ABC transporter ATP-binding protein
Amino acid sequence: MSSLVLENLSYQYNGTAVIEGLDLTVAKDEIVCLLGASGCGKTTTLKAIAGLITAQQGKVFIDAKLISDEQRFLAPEHRNIGMMFQDYALFPHLTVADNIAFGLTKMSKAQKQQRVNEMLELVHLVGCAERFPHQLSGGQQQRVAIARALAYNPSLLLLDEPFSNIDTQVRFELIADIRRIIKNQQVSAVFVTHSKEEAFAFADTLAIMDCGKIVQQGTPEQLFNTPNSKVVAEFLGQGIYLDAEALTATEYTTAFGRVESLLAQSHAKHVGQLYVRPHHLELMPLQPQSSPANTVTILNRRFVGSHFVYKVIIAGQEIDVAAQLGQSFLVNDDVTIRITPHTVNFFAE
Ligand SMILES: Nc1ncnc2c1ncn2[C@@H]1O[C@H](COP(=O)(O)OP(=O)(O)OP(=O)(O)O)[C@@H](O)[C@H]1O
């Protein structure tokens, strides 16, 4: 059974469509990340799930129960959803224990105490129960927020940019920690971010949003290796487009010579473009057989600790390419470039 199903959801702010015919499925115990450019409608989607706004069209099901459509609307407090929104900060005048116990209105005092203790243990904050939020670090505050959201056993958790105020140094530790907590509680979650690094680290599957719709949903590897559109390919990482023709299921011709795909793909149309990412490009000292197309000039170089990254122009597009270990070029050097065999992203015209 799916934890959450959105069917053909649409929402407009003052007549302007923000979500348009959006479909999304979240399986039981799955963490799905809504990922997309700023303003594409991620937060609006979360608000429609939570019941903080009413979608003008479409259906929302939680645990197979219809909770909203054009006729029905279940109030947010009856949806059994835990929320961790950026602007739903902790109550500053309540202790950590009281913040966690806040939603536990139906429990006796002893039950509340037991649940708070369990939550403190889960988020590794035993000993902080009597502190106030300002006496905690940003990461500790987020752990209290997740404990509060999980305390009453919600069937679904919504998280809106929960890590955006956390220092980069500790952010990925916190992400791993909160993922562990959510998995431990076996709750489904929808998480919003515009950072693909956070999404890769936190989610089981990604749902890429564009123009108010989910354009592709899958594991990070599926989306990165086989994006179904240029929007998804570009969103998940830098690259360049090369005019190409598909010769067979695994072979393409380009101005740079033949490119081999490690995955056989069938194409209805054979003329289009390849999207090539930097790590599929290899720079090497100028080879005697290098054609003009395979020869590029180093525009600048940047030392990043273990190796250099070189800026070059290929087919009129700038790209940063990491050199092989131990290889070093100078600015203005002409070098040979080659495209290594990889899972090719081909978009037909
Ligand atoms: N209360 C509002 N009134 C009018 N327009 C709004 C309102 N809230 C959001 N919008 C608009 O709706 C669109 C989607 O906003 P939303 O906050 O859902 O985007 P988002 O993908 O979460 O963006 P971000 O990554 O920047 O947080 C934006 O163009 C935004 O300007």
Notes: The two ends are 39 Å apart (CA to CA). The chain has a mean pLDDT of 91. The pocket of adenosine-5'-triphosphate is lined by residues 13-14, 18, 36, 38-44, 194 (CB under 6 Å).
